[in-house]
Design a protein that fits this description.
The protein has about 60 residues and is mainly α. The chain is built from two helices and no strands. It has a domain at about 25-60. The chain has helices at about 5-35, 40-50.
């Protein structure tokens, strides 16, 4: 693969990873929305929304 091909592949890969991350983030946020409104859920929701990180050790 030549240099331009490598750059193109890397760019596509980054876009794919970002898209996957967004989908997972939306799914986790929707899941937390559907849970009962307790203080623990509010904290998890705030963390998920504020950091932009969907997967945390708390969700496992």
């Amino acid at each position: 693969m030549d240099e331009s091909g490598r750059k193109y592949y890397k760019q596509i890969n980054q876009m794919w990873n970002r898209a996957q991350h967004k989908v997972i983030e939306q799914w986790v946020y929707a899941y937390l929305e559907s849970e009962e409104e307790t203080e623990e859920v509010k904290v998890k929701r705030r963390k998920a929304k504020g950091k932009g990180k969907a997967i945390d050790t708390e969700y496992k």
